[in-house]
Amino acid sequence: MARAVIDGDFPRAGLGSRRLVERAPAGTLRVVTDGRTVIGFAAEVTAATGWVPARLS
Q: What does the pLDDT look like over 36-46, one tens digit per residue?
């Protein structure tokens, strides 16, 4: 669904998005951001880097 919105409303953004997917090295972390809070996806990214644990108590 998000791809359709990007391709339909912002054609150049869709092209850039496809290039990123095609050229990203193996092992590249992809984080879903749709419907999530900044804190939610930031926690996922920082946990993936090893900077902080996956869950803070």
A: 999 988 888 88
